[in-house]
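User: I'll paste a sequence; please echo it back and then give the predicted structure.

Assistant: Echoing your sequence first, then the prediction.
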Amino acid sequence: MKYVIGVDIGTSATKSVLFDETGKVISSSSQEYPLYQEKNGYAEQDPRDWYNASVTTIKQVIEQSGVSNKDIAGIGLSGQMHGLVMLDENNEVIRKSIIWCDQRTGKECEEITQRVGAQRLIEITANPALTGFTASKILWVRNNEPENYKKCRHILLPKDYVRFMLTGEYATEVSDASGMQLLDVPGRCWSDEVLEKLDIDRDLLPQVYESCEVTGAVTAGAAALTGLMEGTLVVGGAGDNAAAAVGTGIVEDKKAFTTIGTSGVVFAHTSDIVIDPKGRVHTFCCAVPGCWHIMGVTQGAGLSLKWFRDNFCSDEKNTAELMGVSEYYLMDKEAATVPVGSDRLLYLPYLMGERTPHLDPDARGVFFGLSAMHTKKHMLRAVMEGVAFSLRDCKEICSEMGIDISDMMACGGGGTSPLWRQMLADLYKCPVKTVACNEGPALGVAILAMVGAGIYSTVQEACSKLIATDKTQLPSDDEAYEYDKYYTLYRKLYPALKDSYRELAKL
């Protein structure tokens, strides 16, 4: 029996999972680390924390399992995207990594758009200039910390720093590199045009691989720390959402997944490059060689429900603790007692601005239609429905771009809610399923490692054998009809409030 390890370098923690070649979880371990926010809008982490957590958790899963390191065929790496890691000539970290949720780079986004051109930028990188992406972070360091930029010899993404520490190789892969805003996304290689216009030296960037290609092997030093065998293969891996797609079997056309985590994502696989000229959704290279994915993002998905729980559901928290269940389980039961449409109450989930489809940082949350007859239960269901409406916005743009979706998986914390999955099935008008193994990104990159190690010949073959469906929510024609009426009204609310949002931001 052969084994592989998937390492998921997240924002709050790194999780390593040891799988056998049938996809069965043998052991897992996670370790948290801090987030540094020195100013409002800043978000940084220490790359050495990621590596230390990776070393610790890899060692633990090997020790817990009793598996011989000789039988571990490969390692796959998943990670938070967009973070900027800068190394000096001695490969030492120059400064903390500016990570994906940092918002300091507004001026740099304007600079990128001016230098490259708005339309040309979307044609090459498939996305408008965004504060979350890596290119604007590079320019921010150059503009504000020239002494650090002058010392920089290598630029890596979070998971690729861990790769370097494990293998000594400067490497990345197409899915994560797509989020740097420096990649020619249709061509799956660095864009000389963008690099030249932004005056960024190509030699600073790592080599780009496909996600299941072998990028290096574990060094003797890393082997001594982790318990891995020297020479263990390390494949390209993938950015977190691309990894989750593989881990849920979204590796063929007409397949998609919806994640309801802090933010919400609709991720659709496509064999053909399709770019939204308005930049409302992201187009990235996916982890399947020669394919891409479309990704819409709603900022305040699970965040909206968490906000409601933290501020209005103390009774549910107390009762849940006495019953030994999650407060979200009780909240689900309460929301299920309210009819579709929450008795004419709508919620706009824009607590943190919005990306898809509005690209508006000034947008804010709204309860619309609130009356004296509404109760906490109505507001709770309205929050869940509002998030589902926002996710349908994402799916509608995919449809507009010619991406036909007939098979939808649900994952993330919100995906465990039968009620939320039913809302999505009714709004999407297609079955919404869950997978039997919920390891998501870790399983996804483990599958990529299996392909790189030759256990399976293709990503599609591996997924067909390893990914199993667990639960299925079928759409209800009656409820879908009712939701369509509310969704039509929902779509009118943002345009009506757009100018007011801008005025509010200036107060």
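The chain has a mean pLDDT of 96. Residues 168 and 219 are 7 Å apart (CA to CA).
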